[in-house]
Design brief:
The chain is α/β, with parallel strands linked by helices. It is built from 18 helices and 4 strands. It comes from Salinicoccus roseus.
Length: 413
């Protein structure tokens, strides 16, 4: 145990103290704090200032209509009628003509886009009301003018007609309603997992391959069992990746405590629902298990080679499978969680860490498939570590050039 801890601590501390680790971690933490202040940064470059009062210069009839239309719209400015004088944080809406409606909007500063949209939407409604009045349309005719078409769906495999059947048919062609916060959690999980796998898989493969190519391993195995040495290396690299991940999580928690997220949440609609806790829980589980699985495989592949020139070729399966899993997850987020591709790939161990968080976003998935995915990863991790230990023990002192030569020799043994 002492030899395991010695190798573990030496590898872990050397990686944590490395400049590359510190710089990359600092950059990500800085990006987290920048993202937490995204709305404030935008305001720095946004020269527009919200108006507090919209003064309307018009006849009483138009003002009454405009005020009635603006009342149900949740605006952050007041409506007033005056003779054309405006203050510093005020705007003036002057009516130049009634048929057709022509207005001029004046202000001493740039008006924010959200306030402009409210004003334009209200003017459009007033224009429609004035058009209906000028054409002397009855209430029924006016309602027919704004009515939506009555569509009956007659689609093969679905019931036609009105009511719930037609509604379900209409919904069948629509995009699934996905909670924005769950979507953010999914994207963060998959992207972070992909980049950590690519980064640390290369590092652990290099560690193992460098020891073999420099013949340092001959001195190591004289005092430490090869399997113990490999397991310590794998554990240390997994701990380094989890340390970096923990730093990111702590930075996010600090940012939440220090900065006000209310405006960002309101702008992007980031509100939790019943599936959010399940989504976050399983995302963290699959993230950790995915890192352990891929790093174990990378260590196993690194033990195949005897030359550093073969390292990238040996690690190609890690890059390829992680990239395929990443793309399957990303490009199916707006599709169905029960599609054939998603269901099959979610049970393939190398794709499970990427695809299962996608299925966790949808309530119809249930707990059973998610727990099966966890069990698949646990079994795969055990097999990968045992296989890596066996291969490393049989190839640790091999001087054969080429991956396939080493593989043939290990099979013979």
């Amino acid at each position: 145990m002492s030899k395991f801890l010695a190798t573990f601590s030496q590898t872990y501390l050397s990686k944590v103290r490395a400049k590359s680790f510190m710089i990359s971690t600092a950059i990500i933490v800085l990006l987290i704090f920048v993202g937490a202040n995204f709305d404030k940064i935008i305001n720095i470059f946004d020269s527009s200032e919200e108006i507090t009062t919209l003064n309307v210069e018009s006849e009483d009839a138009f003002y009454a209509q405009f005020e009635a239309v603006m009342e149900p719209i949740e605006t952050d400015f007041d409506i007033a009628q005056n003779d054309g004088e405006i203050g510093d944080t005020e705007a003036l809406l002057r009516v130049d003509g009634m048929e057709p409606l022509a207005v001029t909007l004046e202000a001493d500063q740039e008006i924010p886009g959200s306030q402009m949209n409210d004003i334009e939407m209200a003017l459009g409604q007033v224009q429609r009301m004035m058009t209906i009045q000028s054409l002397n349309l009855t209430q029924a005719e006016a309602e027919r003018l704004n009515a939506s078409p009555d569509i009956t769906y007659d689609i093969a495999g679905q019931d036609g007609g009105d009511g719930e059947a037609s509604e379900s048919a209409a919904e069948a062609g629509e995009m699934p309603d996905i909670n924005p916060l769950n979507t953010v959690v999914f994207y963060v999980t998959v992207i972070v997992m992909f980049f950590i796998i690519i980064n640390y898989a290369s590092q652990i493969g290099t560690e193992v391959a460098m020891e073999k190519t420099s013949r340092v391993i001959e001195m190591i195995v004289s005092s430490v069992a090869p399997v113990t040495h490999l397991l310590a290396k794998i554990s240390a690299m997994i701990s380094v990746s989890l340390t970096q991940l923990a730093i990111f999580i702590v930075a996010i928690l600090i940012a939440i405590q220090l900065f006000d997220f209310s405006e960002i949440i309101s702008n992007f609609g980031l509100e939790a629902n019943d599936q959010t806790v399940t989504m976050i829980t399983y995302s963290v589980i699959f993230l950790i298990l995915g890192l352990i699985l891929y790093l174990s495989i990378a260590a196993m592949l690194g033990s195949f080679i005897s030359r550093m020139e073969d390292l990238q070729q040996a690690l190609l399966p890690v890059t390829m499978f992680s990239l395929i899993g990443f793309y399957i997850a990303i490009f199916n987020i707006w599709g169905s969680a029960d599609s054939l591709l998603v269901r099959i790939s979610s049970y393939f161990p190398l794709f499970t860490p990427f695809v299962m968080p996608l299925r966790a976003m949808h309530e119809e998935t249930g707990q059973a498939p998610l727990l099966i995915g966890v069990a698949i990863l646990l079994v795969s991790i055990i097999l990968a570590i045992l296989l890596a230990a066996s291969i490393y023990r049989n190839s640790v002192l091999s001087t054969s050039n080429g991956i396939f030569k080493n593989l043939k020799r290990i099979k013979k043994e």
